[in-house]
Specification:
The structure is a single chain. The chain is α/β, with parallel strands linked by helices. The protein has a single domain, classed as TIM Barrel (Alpha-Beta Barrel), CATH 3.20.20. Helix content is 45%, strand content 11%. The protein contains 14 helices and seven strands. Strands 1, 2, 3, 4, 5, 6 and 7 form a seven-stranded parallel sheet that branches. β1, α3 and β2 form a beta-alpha-beta unit. The two termini are 28 Å apart. Keywords: Carbohydrate metabolism, Hydrolase, Magnesium, Metal-binding.
């Protein structure tokens, strides 16, 4: 009886002490450390996107990527993963296809997720107005399973365009459920979350401090995207953060793929690649003492796999 009581007290104290530690400390770093995931979205949409992202990964300046499973160049990513098994690749859960003349379909036959041509809707409103919950759950699971069956064991989950999941607490719960079920972190921060959403988060869920990205206003400003990223990096506070970027080459493939679009299009992605493979970026993270980490590290250290 005494030993059981001692064990209970030990577990209680361990849980309490763990709850008092910052996420950085739980990962084995100091609470004063600046930890950053440089996260390249949209793997799979083109050879250009893949090649630029692979190059940035190889250079060590991009630390993580995420894959659009229904995309046409999915198998090239699977091939890369075989060659570079340690590459940090998550699943960019996808329910929309936003480009004008370039589309992808669900990996399931879910009719509520597609337009009259059988492609994903190109915007969040049409998706939210038509999607059935059971179709969404089936599709997202199928995307994860297809990646796994092709040798891509995802390091995390995140969301393409932010559609659907943040429109309903039921879909938000599904997002968390998928991370728990596959025992990998989901990209999540408390910033901007409604209180009712925060209430369904459990201790097992990993919450990073901030998720940064660039918007249309940053592309148009003097200094462009490089100024945005420089401002983020030079003002970064201690903690665990993610910076979402999109890396590709501004070539014929990407120009035709993103035709009629200005934002997040071909030149934008070349600008991202140029900045995050530049000497300037390397110098900034050195001067600011920023440590690049991966989702894989977070999952391995904080999520129980059994």
């Amino acid at each position: 009886m005494k030993s059981l009581l001692t064990h209970f007290i030990f577990l209680t104290l361990s849980f309490y002490m763990s709850a008092q530690l910052s996420l950085a400390e739980r990962l084995g770093y100091s609470k004063s450390d600046k930890l950053l995931i440089v996260h390249a979205d949209d793997l799979g949409i083109s050879h250009s996107e893949n090649h630029a992202s692979f190059t940035a990964l190889e250079m060590g300046t991009v630390s993580s990527t995420s894959l659009i499973v229904p995309s046409p160049w999915f198998l090239e990513v699977a091939e890369f993963k075989k060659i570079r098994p340690d590459a940090d690749i998550g699943i960019h859960l996808t329910l929309t296809s936003e480009w004008v003349n370039y589309k992808w379909r669900p990996v399931t036959n879910a009719e509520s997720l597609v337009d009259f041509n059988g492609y994903f809707f190109d915007n969040c409103d049409d998706l939210e107005n038509n999607a059935r919950f059971k179709d969404v759950e089936k599709e997202l699971k199928a995307q994860i399973e297809l990646a796994i069956s092709n040798g891509i064991n995802p390091t995390h989950l995140d969301i393409h365009m932010g559609c659907l999941v943040y429109s309903s607490i039921d879909y938000f719960k599904l997002y968390l459920k998928l991370g728990r079920e596959y025992k990998i972190p989901v990209m999540l921060t408390y910033g901007g979350l409604p209180e009712e959403y925060k209430k369904v988060i459990k201790n097992e869920d990993v919450i990073i401090d901030n998720v940064y990205s660039a918007g249309a206003q940053h592309f148009d400003q003097e200094g462009g995207l490089a100024k945005r990223y420089t401002d983020v990096l030079t003002s970064l506070k201690p903690g665990v953060h993610a910076l979402i970027i999109h890396t590709a080459y501004d070539n014929d493939e990407m120009q035709h793929l993103t035709i009629y679009k200005k934002y997040w299009a071909s030149k934008w992605r070349q600008d991202d690649f140029d900045f995050f493979t530049s000497q300037k970026f390397k110098q900034i993270i050195k001067e600011e003492n920023i440590k690049l980490i991966t989702w894989k590290e977070i999952g391995n250290k904080l999520i129980k796999k059994e």
